[in-house]
Amino acid sequence: MELRRVGPAALVGAVGLAVLVDPVAAQSAADTTTEALINDLNDLLLVVGVPIAVLVEGILIYTVWKYRKNDEAKPTPENRSLEIGWTIATAVILVTVGIAAYGTMSSAFVSAESNQALDTEQDPVEIKVVAQKYFWTFEYPNETVREVTGNESATSFSNPNTLVMPTDRPVELNITSKDWLHAFHAPEMGLKQDAFPGQWNSLLTQANNEGEFQLYCAEYCGAGHSNMFGTVDVRSQDGFEEWVTGQTGG
Ligand SMILES: [Cu+2]
Prior knowledge:
Layout: H1 3-20, H2 33-66, H3 80-105, E1 125-132, E2 135-140, E3 144-146, E4 152-154, E5 157-160, E6 162-166, E7 170-177, E8 182-186, E9 191-195, E10 201-206, E11 211-217, E12 230-235, H4 237-245
Parallel strand pairs: 1-7, 6-12
Antiparallel strand pairs: 1-2, 2-5, 3-4, 7-10, 8-9, 8-11, 11-12
The chain binds copper (II) ion.
């Protein structure tokens, strides 16, 4: 069969396959709003990028094969419409990718900054994340807990190494360090933020699924760094409230 006919057919097939086997789309629904936003952008970039890569490489391989026995190179004739065409196509692709990336990066769920005005319907649950060699402490400054007297009141409490948070409610993590550089990293939830001494860095997210997720320190911080694990324990809203009320204030 002539290569002239096989080439385009193979290209179309390769592009179709690349879109079908998108590994991100095959994953289960995202565990947090943050992860969903990042996955959606990743999907879009793959859908735009993979066909272009296959097309360009396909044309390159086809051309090398077709002209492999040519001895003399002939000068390329000018083709203005082709040049205008690829300039516009490139511009359209770059602007599309730029707008999509800006849309994701400007979301407070992806790039939360300290004291950023949070545009959420519910007040977020505020949790302070304190890193130190070689463990995590999670402080809950605003939740209502049961006091020793049996009364319920808003008071702060803390929990070591396990970050308990509710589903379907925004959660604001304010992250700092007591000694030196650490980093909060829960990869399955799409969350990562540096922990610096004397500075608060924020993450805003909302969990979709209950479950336990691994938390790591993602900044080499000394001999115990590889053991600086924690757990993110995502519970239903009722389960979370129950857990909070069961804590004792002080
Ligand atoms: Cu660390």
